[in-house]
Design a protein that fits this description.
Length: 99
């Protein structure tokens, strides 16, 4: 019986165990989006928690990953489409005539 290989993070390097690229890789992102399709806020909280863990682990490794780079890598891709219009990005709530 063959085991399905998962695109999961290998700690402390934060590279995908399956494909070897920086995690979350594209397949991991797709899996996470599907898993959290009804609760994008929970996905964002989960990813922010992983980002903090990765920042701690990568800080001593000499990888030189910036906090902004980690935010893009872990959290930014998961933002809701239209988040600014809905006021979910922390910015002002926009109405239709503002866009």
């Amino acid at each position: 019986m063959s085991r399905r290989r998962e695109h999961v993070a290998s700690r402390p390097t934060w590279r995908c165990q399956f494909c070897g690229i920086a995690w979350p890789c594209s397949p991991a992102k797709l899996r996470l989006l599907a898993e959290y399709r009804h609760d994008r806020v929970a996905l964002t909280v989960y990813l922010a928690t992983l980002q903090a863990e990765a920042a701690d682990q990568l800080a001593g490794s000499g990888h030189g990953t910036s906090p902004a780079g980690l935010t893009d890598r872990f959290v930014s891709w998961a933002r809701l489409r239209g988040a600014r219009r809905a006021g979910l990005d922390g910015g002002p709530l926009l109405c239709e005539r503002d866009t």
